[in-house]
Amino acid sequence: MIYSLHGKLLTKEMNFAVVECGGVGYGCRTSYSTISKLGEIGSDVTLFTHLYIKESIVELFGFINQQELNCFRLLISVTGIGGKAATSILSDMTPEKFAFAIASGDSKAFTKTKGIGAKTAQRIVLELKDKISSESLDMTASAYTDSSAVADTSAISEAMEALMVLGYSQGEVAPILRKLDPILDTQTLIKETLRHIVSGK
Asked: What is the pTM of this model?
C-alpha cells in the first residue's frame, strides 16, 4: 500500500500530477483543488494517496491533505461512483463543503458537477449519511469523550466520531462542539460544527 508520496513535482496538469520519489516518477490522478495548491514544477510536494483497483483499472490517486483523501474514499464507496467521478466532485467543492452537503442532506450541491444527475446525487447523500454514522473508528473512547474537550453525551460523541471519519481532528472540532447545545441531535451537531468550519468562525 502506498500511503503517501513526497518528492519533486515533475508535471502538473488539470487533473494529473507526477511526483518523483527516489528516481521514480509516480503519476497521480487528482482533483483540480489539489492541483491548484501544488507548488511550481521542481518544488517538493507531498500527496496522500489511494491505489484504486477495479477490474482491469489500476490507478494511483493523490491529494493535498488527508481530509480530501478521506472524502475521495467515501465517494468511491458509493454505488456507481468511480475514481473519475469522485475527483470531479472534489474539484467542485472543498472537503468542508462536501461534508456539510452530506450532513445537511443537500443532494443538489452534487448536481453542480458535470455528469452527476439528481438520482446519483441523492444516492451519494443517502449512502454516505449512513456510512458516516455507522463507521467504526479504531480509537479509544477518551479520544472523543474527554470531559476537558467536550461534554460527554451520546450525541456529541457520535458527532465527534463522524467528523473524525471525515478527517477532522479532535483539536479542530472539540472547541466548536463545546459551544453547542448538548441536547441537540447528532446530525444537527455535525451540521452546526461544519457550518462554523466553513464560515471560519
From this structure: 0.72
